[in-house]
Protein: Phosphoenolpyruvate-protein phosphotransferase
Amino acid sequence: EKKELESLKGQESKTLDGRHVELAGNIGTPNDVQGLINNDAEGVGLYRTEFLYMNRSEFPTEEEQYESYKAVLESMNPKPIVIRTLDIGGDKELSYLEMDKEMNPFLGYRAIRLCLDRQDIFKTQLRALLRASVHGNLRIMFPMISSLEELLSAKEILESVKSDLDKEGIDYSKNIEVGMMIEVPSAALISDILAKHVDFFSIGTNDLIQYTTAVDRMNEKIHNLYNQFNPAVLRLIKMVIDNGHKEGKWVGMCGEAAGDKRMIPILLGMGLDEFSMSPISILPARKLITSLKYEDMKPVAEKVVSMGTAKEIEEYMQNNFA
Ligand code: PEP
Ligand code: MG
Structure:
């Protein structure tokens, strides 16, 4: 088994009938890169930058951030690296950032909402990202976008930081892809419009499940209601992939569902282009994908979105693919 996975290193992630997908990894710090290299990741699909800001007493400087981003970009160059801008708030707090107590932190002041309000914090990060971009293949991704206005504002700020750097004569890459996470149903529902303004989408199922089904992802008591096979969630995922593709944009997934072997056949059949997961899931995912036919997974994807319950879908996938 282990030997078989070993033999998949250096192989393409391609179905039996020739559809190629990208198998990338999720990381939290530059130290995590070695695990990705060991497991032959084809890139980074999600670098959660909030860990740079956590467990310390003040904001990381532009220079500190630059060094971290540069380290990741260089160590996997020329593979693509999706770096997500600060996703703080919700369950993640900073000791040095005063935040009001909120009734519903997951519905509150977090991620891009905080960054659009505190542009000083956001611009420092964007400057560090742009400066680091010359060291590899950077893709910038905004978290928790729930409207077109937010996406356009975030892009506007990015452009203003670029023009600051131009004025200062500081170099940055001219072909950085800019994308957004789809983790809020309101974004999924207008993904046809949002797709015109991004280079890619990455679906964040961890939050998309919680917001679609109104089930707190941290609440053990209702954990049985939190299910990635929920048909409403699957329909949203399909809608996002279709809408992205209609505009010629690639669509990935960086939530936990992307690495689940019962989920992968569905996502493959829906046409997902990139799967980003924890390092240890990469080679098993490649093994599965190289054993499947894309054309055979299309009807599987169609079948499951016509089913009424998560249980039925989960059992169907368990019986046929696990
Ligand atoms: C997600 O919501 O699926 C996601 C990848 O983001 P996080 O888990 O960091 O909220
Ligand atoms: Mg999320």
